[in-house]
Amino acid sequence: MNLRRRPVVPLLLLPALLAAPVLAQEKKPDPAKQLQQVEKDLKQADKTKADLDAKAEGLEKELADLRARAIDAAAQQRTQADELARLEGALGDLGEEEKARLDKIEADRAALADLLGALQRLSRLPPDTMIAAPQSPSDTVKSALLLRSAVPELKTRADALSRELQGLVDLRRQLAEQKDKAARAAESLTLRQKDLAGLVARREELSKSTDSERTRLATQVAALADRAGDLKDLIEKLEAERKAEAARKAEAERRRLAQVEAQREQRARDKVAGLKRAPAEPQSAGILGGMVAPVSGKITQRYGTVDAVGATSRGLTYSGRAGGPVVAPADGSVMFAGPFKGYGLLLILEHANGYHSLLSGLGRIDAQVGQRVLGGEPVGLLSGDGDPTLYYELRRGGQPVNPARGLAASDGKGQG
Fold this sequence. Notes:
The chain is of the alpha+beta class. The chain has 2 domains: 24-280; 283-405, Glucose Permease (Domain IIA), CATH 2.70.70.10. It has 5 helices and 10 strands. Strands 1, 2, 3, 4, 5, 6, 7, 8, 9 and 10 form a 10-stranded antiparallel beta sheet that branches. Helix 2 (31-123) runs antiparallel to helix 4 and helix 2 (31-123) runs parallel beside helix 5 (239-273). It is elongated, with a radius of gyration of 42 Å.
């Protein structure tokens, strides 16, 4: 009778097989040790965050200085743009005066030429001709008197023509000087635009460097906190303490961030207040209540007037210089920044007491949603082509109000 033989396990392998379950159990992770490691990582993250805050403190001081310098540079650029516009207008007036003088000189010159021609022809008449066609004595006397009076008149006209020509020389010299001033003003304006662009770029770089690092660190801390929470679910003894500590840290962080933001705004305000000359608002801006005109230029459409298509304007339309800076009319925060149908690039700022500013027609926006801005701080540029316009609308409680009334600190209702 043949029986199948069972495989025989060598005796040397039995200890290893018996120890295998034990080794598998030893490799199982220990939640308590993992929790200790996570808490260690959280402490390290807190230390890194403290170092980042110390570094950010220095950057915040530089950022406040940059914001103040940007406000001052924008104000100077607006002043130079107004001066350049004035010079260009003066050039136009001088050009028209030059044309009028040239026309008058040409007319005087033609009249003088006719008079000279008549005298020359009279002087070339021979005596024989006068004998052949004798005149009466009275006519001869009249002709002599006329000829005698024509000579002083001729000299008077010649002297007047000489004075007109000298005046034309002086006018052209003045015109050349004005053109030279306008060229220097345009060159200075270009340099101001470059300086302002550099300040705005540096401001954005500083803001993004600190904000991105804080965002990354906050994400890392949140992930560690979630992991710690999962582990502490296995250790109920520490659950209540973890939640209370997390809540305390969250509240402390919220208060710290609010304090940092308040200090950042106060630094910027102190810098602006410390400038030798604060940005002044043009008299033609038509905006009161401490507000700043959003762009340098003339107002082509005022609030409440009817335009060419019969629509009533609900804001102000400015005609600005190509590539000119656009600034915040008052302190506030950016609610919207980007393209919007029918408005082009649109920027919406939220102010105190229920006010909002709408700026449309920008060629470029240099502000981000959530960013705090001060009155007069650059937030964008006009289009660099042609004769750009900017539409500015001030709203309160969702209703358009007259920007000439400025910002009032009343109950927040709309006003006409």
